[in-house]
Fold Major facilitator superfamily (MFS) profile domain-containing protein.
Amino acid sequence: MASDPEQPPLSSLPKEGRSRGEIGSAREPLLSNGVHDSENYYSTYAAILPFLFPALGGLLYGYDIGATSSATISIQSSTLSGITWYNLSSVQIGLVTSGSLYGALIGSLLAFNVADFLGRKRELIAAALAYLVGALVTAVAPDFPLLVVGRVVFGLGIGLAMHAAPMYIAETAPTPIRGILISLKEFFIVLGMVAGYGTGSLLVDTVAGWRYMFGVSSPLAIIMGIGMFFLPDSPRWILLCAIQGKGDPQNLKDKAICCLCQLRGQAIGNSAPQQVDEILAELSYVGEEKEVTFGELFRGKCKKALLIGGGLVLFQQITGQPSVLYYAGSILQSAGFSAASDATRVSILLGFFKLIMTGAAVGVVDKLGRRPLLLGGVSGMAISLFLLGSYYIFLDNVAVVAVVGLLLYVGCYQISFGPIGWLMISEVFPLRLRGRGLSIAVLVNFASNALVTFAFSPLKELLGAGTLFYIFCAIAVTSLLFIHFIVPETKGLTLEEIEAKCL
């Protein structure tokens, strides 16, 4: 194989960096000074478009959450459903509501095996296609079984999108704004929820309104798919393929340079080859040339990355987030808010509050760092859960305690676990493990969400709301210990430096 005389062949990339200094038991990365000259610039294109189209996958996920609550009301109406099979059982309504969640679990399992083969871009295109097919099948479903099929197919899109979008954004974003861009994906999820609640409230009194609620997703899915088609592949994924021998190394390196130029635009000048060489040197240094085996996922740095990522998304769900929101309407109503009798209005109100708090987190995540937001936010969640538990056991005549607890919980969640959980899992996994590791983390997220949602009602009946909130409070305190002792700070580090320094 002929190679460019001005560029060293991939097999001769410098590996002497492996013997350079160590940080504790970790080896010092080649780019250890924290200054990344080749990433000190980025164009509007680099900052917006490679984020926007993957983030539409999060928007569609959030929209589904918001719209489904109104769709289940519409579909059970004898006069407005527009169907003859409107008299659905509680189990059937549960399947309509959770069908997309089961599809997301299946999508996460599929991603484990196909993610590294497809690459981030093609996986997001596949997600957009699943979104489109699922939305259309659900909207035109002539009977209940096909309706459930459409919900599951849409859920496949959720599973693939929530797996691939954080990877694509993390691997293409300039280091100085990586935290902002990945955290904005959570902002898009919440924005989608607000849009779903709003659309549902507008269409709930329309004949066959549930069909329109579900069908509205299809144009956005088309935009997402077309946008991803014209975006370049992730240069890091291409370089991983190169050093693992999955194609002609020099051609793949040239392709990575071309993709990097597309991502950064004219701002990158002539330094794209230099940046690609830096990434290749780091990948070679941390041993990315070996393909990960299933057993290796649970050893060494791979095991630590799984512990960090899986632990964060597990605590994200089992600290009671779905359960607290279940009580939002009754809490606000007990405090004298008449609009709280309308569940949709409560959802829209809390949705806008979530947007504000998520926006606050996005604005400071690359300044304050990940750990301060996690530690501060989860501390606030623990306090709020204690207040809610106390309200339901001791202070049932002091509604202000419950309102403060509710708003404190929602706000603290949105500046901590909400955006930072997704951000951290996109950063901590080594590149060759990132596809499979993220699929496990996303699977843990959706599985624990399903478990908490399923177990909430029987546990509430068995233990009472107050005791249940105290249990969530204890879990939140445990998650604080986990964050303090296990979760590293990744602010200002390249993805390669995170692997070398933090794992």
Q: What stands out?
A: Strands lie at 22-23, 26-27. The longest helix spans residues 90-140. Residues 80 and 207 are 4 Å apart (CA to CA).
